[in-house]
Amino acid sequence: MSFKKFEYTCLEDVIEESRQLGLNLPFSQNTNVLSRLVDIGDFRIPNSIAIHPMEGSDGEKDGSPGELTVRRYRRFSGSGAGLIWFEAVAVVPEGRATSRQLWIHSGNTAPFRKMTDIIREVASAESENSLRPVCIMQLTHSGRFSKPEGKPAPVIAYHNPYLNQRLNLEPDYPVITDEELERLEGKFEEAAILARDAGFDGVDVKCCHRYLNCELLSAYNREGRYGGNFEGRTRFLLNVVDRISSRLGSSFIVTTRLNIYDGIPYPYGWGVDIEDYLRLDSTEPLKLVGLLRQRNVKILNLTMGTPYYNPHVNRPYDVGGYIPEEKPLTGVARLVKGIGEIQLAYPDVSIVGTGYSWLRQYAPNLAAGCLERGLVTIAGFGREAFAYPGFARDILANGSMDSKKCCISCSKCSDILRAGGTAGCVVRDAQVYAPVYKQYYV
């Protein structure tokens, strides 16, 4: 199957190709469904559109939001989205993915509080109905992708030959111990308390894209309490959720952005078919979501893949580091189908979906169709928000998006991040980010 860049001239072209590929993507013209209110415990999300945690790597050295961080969230705040899923914030300095990744600690809650104040003030001022978006902070430890001083300093859960070779890790490279993981559980708990004090409505215990917590889910060959069987591999995530929920109660949202499929061969991949790693096996992800539901987790953000191994899986693109052996529309369908399976199994959990941005101006139609069929509760947009921060407002007001403002899935924002720069849209926000891109690639 030959790779195909986006070249559609109308929605009917997308629908026809979807049919030809046997994908049956649920497009709908009824974009009004994206204005539905969503209740999450004591919180009301004012519509069914979310901004995913999009990392800018533009914080201060002490982990506080920087000038570009504040600029980005001012833009996101005026987007009209009802849910702002704040980007990855490290819980310990050694877990930062870059030297400028955000990091919350007792010495910088005030700058984060200023951020939540800005988000709500701008959102209210930009909307007719005094919009109050729900704000969730993503808490993270970058694990094997940690670069706190700008150079690799991996913290690995086990030895994975597919990912080890990318970092040139030797077979005797140390693995994080059970005792260190137990102490780290406490760091996530402490960070959640600080996030609450900083004005966030909840926290996401990040468990996706092969960062430390996510890597543990596939630690089949790890010995000790945090590996081996299903109970051991999910222990860290569930323990952290339990600790935060016990400490902060039901009036604070505890959730996770969760990988349901890694696309890495077994026994080094999570949610993969043992015989064919290119196929999703949702048995364990479904079981884990059930355990989270039992813990009163009312909202989940689901995703797939890893940007360090198979980026086309979690963000189908036109241009990337390699040409995938599938059409991007097939990748979109994988996300829709896999996430939809979880939502249909647990209709009382509000699932935030992903995978829409590659479709540009036709993304609202797919998002609407997914909501109509009960495949998601909330449509989440990531890189689209970088390129087109007012996208949600236009969808809600006009039922459509301006094709001249949309993300073109060129991967330049990701290129900057991988190179160690501050990430943003080089095409649509060129005045700020084109000079940054040229520092690394021209």
Task: Set out the fold topology.
Elements: H1 11-20, E1 38-40, E2 43-45, E3 49-51, H2 67-77, E4 83-90, E5 102-103, H3 109-126, E6 134-140, H4 161-167, H5 178-197, E7 202-205, H6 212-217, H7 230-233, H8 235-248, E8 253-255, E9 257-259, H9 283-294, E10 299-303, H10 311-314, H11 328-345, E11 350-353, H12 363-372, E12 378-381, H13 383-387, H14 391-398, H15 412-419, H16 430-441
Parallel strand pairs: 3-4, 3-12, 4-5, 4-6, 6-7, 7-8, 9-10, 10-11, 11-12
Antiparallel strand pairs: 1-2
Helix pairs in contact: 2-3, 5-8
Folded structure, characterized:
There is one protein chain. With 442 residues, the protein is an alpha/beta fold. It has two domains: 11-410, Aldolase class I (TIM Barrel), CATH 3.20.20.70; 412-442, no CATH class. It has 16 helices and twelve strands. The strands form two sheets. Strands 3, 4, 5, 6, 7, 8, 9, 10, 11 and 12 form a ten-stranded parallel beta sheet that branches. Strands 1-2 form a two-stranded antiparallel sheet. β3, α2 and β4 form a beta-alpha-beta unit.
